């Protein structure tokens, strides 16, 4: 079973990203869970969401404590949350920042651990494409690029379907999100 943990702040779309990824992965015939950890979900408050993906039914219903992948929508959370907690040495932490992976690795206190750290400036991409700092869809594109969870075209097709359902009668919003996904997919840096 593959487990993913999302860290963000209220309003950045961590919960929505987990749900969109879950819906996209479900199109492959996998069993999927996508759920948030509820607390004070106000704008700016720390938010955690999760995904589980498996070839067989998932009977576990608890927070993800040992994620293979961690997606961080806001690096400022590093001062309050251990973003690398439970990540195995062969895991991945993907961070929304314009900083270099080596600098982020140091900030996360991962020196000496072989955990892979990748960065993408999803906030910049979101501002350029969506005109709002909502980095969730760019981070989805970067995650799929970094992990190979889905083939690019299959993922984009699933995202188009999901976004068209979510943003009925707003094709410009769908197109902007798809462009944000494509840009982050190409720009994720190792």
From TrEMBL:
Coiled coil: none annotated. Residues 10-186 form the Pyruvate/ketoisovalerate oxidoreductase catalytic domain. Keywords: Oxidoreductase. InterPro entries: Oxidoreductase_gamma_subunit, PorC_KorC, Pyrv/ketoisovalerate_OxRed_cat, Pyrv_flavodox_OxRed_cen. Gene3D superfamilies: Pyruvate-ferredoxin oxidoreductase, PFOR, domain III. The keyword Oxidoreductase applies. The keyword Oxidoreductase applies. Pfam families: POR. PANTHER family: PYRUVATE SYNTHASE SUBUNIT PORC (PTHR43366). This is 2-oxoacid:acceptor oxidoreductase family protein. It comes from Geochorda subterranea. The lineage of its organism: Bacteria, Bacillati, Bacillota, Limnochordia, Limnochordales.
